[in-house]
Amino acid sequence: MSARDWWEDPPEIVLLNERHDRKSFTCGQPAMDDFLRTAPLNPHAEYKVWVATPRPGSSEILAYYAMHPDPIDLVSEEESVAQGVVTVVSVERLATSMHYQGRGLGDFLLATIIDQVIEASEVHPIEALTLVPLNDRVRAWYLRLGFLPTPGREGLFLPLSTLRLARASRLAE
Ligand SMILES: CC(C)(COP(=O)(O)OP(=O)(O)OC[C@H]1O[C@@H](n2cnc3c(N)ncnc32)[C@H](O)[C@@H]1OP(=O)(O)O)[C@@H](O)C(=O)NCCC(=O)NCCS
Hints:
Layout: E1 12-15, H1 30-38, E2 48-53, E3 63-68, H2 71-76, H3 78-83, E4 87-96, H4 105-121, E5 126-131, H5 136-144, E6 148-149, E7 156-159, H6 160-172
Parallel strand pairs: 4-5
Antiparallel strand pairs: 1-2, 2-3, 3-4, 5-7, 6-7
Helix pairs in contact: 4-6
Coenzyme A binds at residues 27-29, 32, 94-96, 100-107, 133-134, 137-138, 141.
């Protein structure tokens, strides 16, 4: 089977809803699978979960991610914009189904996350994107993508200026 070019033939990226088959998703990390299975669908829940499906309307979940705060909530929070609150967005979860790991979907999802954060930064001040890698292999991947170590902490961060550069260089390719 030839590898799918996620940029040429993108998956559907939507908020998790009732039609999605959460039970069949497994990424090899039970805690990450459980997070998806038990995530509330309530639009006011603390976390929103975004899923990638192979085609629009499909129930199969190829991958998911969750950010905190979610960029769409930042866009709607006009009050904190007025107060000038500067926010750091954290990628709390990111997982690809075992069947699809190592096929570039993670790269595509991070590019999608970057687009969402840049869009939110146009109406809400955002300082950086942060995350805590689950293991050394994943950490090396994030470092290659431009994330920087946070002094004294295990997490990594990507400043907004670098997010913009990452998107600009992708669009120029
Ligand atoms: C980490 C993960 C989200 C990457 O998604 P993906 O769709 O496999 O990503 P890509 O194909 O774009 O590969 C990007 C990087 O992911 C990591 N990766 C890919 N397949 C992996 C696997 N089976 N196990 C561990 N890491 C893997 C590698 O660092 C890879 O870069 P490299 O091949 O240059 O080393 C995915 O492999 C996964 O869900 N793993 C299990 C859950 C997990 O470890 N999540 C960590 C979040 S911090």
